[in-house]
Fold:
Amino acid sequence: MNIDERHTELAVRRTLELCRIPSPTGFTRDAAELVEKALRADGIAPRRTNKGSVFCDLGGSGRPLVLAAHLDTLGAIVRSVKPNGRLRFSHLGSFPDLSILTETCIVHARDGRRFTGTFQPVDASLHVNTKLREMKFDDQTVEILLDERVAKREDVTALGISAGDIVSIDARPLLTETGFIKSRHLDDKASAGILLSIAAAAASGALSLGRKTWLLFTTYEEVGHGGAVIPEGVEEFLSVDMGAVGDDLGCDEYKVSICAKDSNGPYDWDVTNALIEAAKRALCDYAVDIYPSYGSDADVALFAGHDVRHGLIGPGVYASHGYERTHRDALANTLALIFAYLSP
Structure:
């Protein structure tokens, strides 16, 4: 199946737009508003759940299906202000502290003000701290240095910064001339961009739907309960997340991944078979893989008690939960698979 280049270009553009918007788990309102604005521009009426997820009815009839991507990302939250004016933090989601060293961040105070800072090791000057190379990095040995003239706790609290403030990590999104998309949080903003392109294609008539189709953009996936609330009557839940790259896996940064099993067990046999057949029809570059250290919103839907068949696909993303990279070809292959899977 040949996907119009415009569908891929739109997916890439939406991905980069979303990556520029900070949206750690619990702080997703701005990203949700971008999604709603994009859907409305296509003539689609989005709705919000009480938890802040965005969903919409794309149309079609029979065998109701939901395609879900998540808007929330990894991040941090201020745990305490240290006596010296540095910030101790707690993780939002799971990531190695090594991956955030020297990264710029933003502290989002509750009064709406934003303060930039940097994740640094405690005593970060190598010319002074000769044991820096031997340090184990965790939330006790890594801290946030604010870009403010502060020297004690009272200086920081006077700015309005306190425990519970959200900290976002600078995504640094970039599209190279060779088609690579580099950014933090491609998990899962690349797939959110893909679903926005799917919505535009369905609204314009470029994609004909062979079944009742919903889109769902969840907001708590990184902490394990994003997919707990789904539209009524859905029979199948397809997570559009990311394909991991590495070890003995077949997926790479150019393919669409079809996951047969993750840490919670196998995905539905019939759904996975149907996805493989759709990938073949669409002549996709794809891989079927097992992800032992992975969970998805589709899993969460099952744990929440929904009686649905479930599956998982997504573009291949390297360096997951770090500064990630994929290629526009992976987005194109994922789009082609979804087009084939939804078409009559």
Remarks:
- The domain at 5-73+173-342 is CATH 3.40.630.10 (Aminopeptidase).
- The longest strand covers residues 309-317.
- The two ends are 13 Å apart (CA to CA).
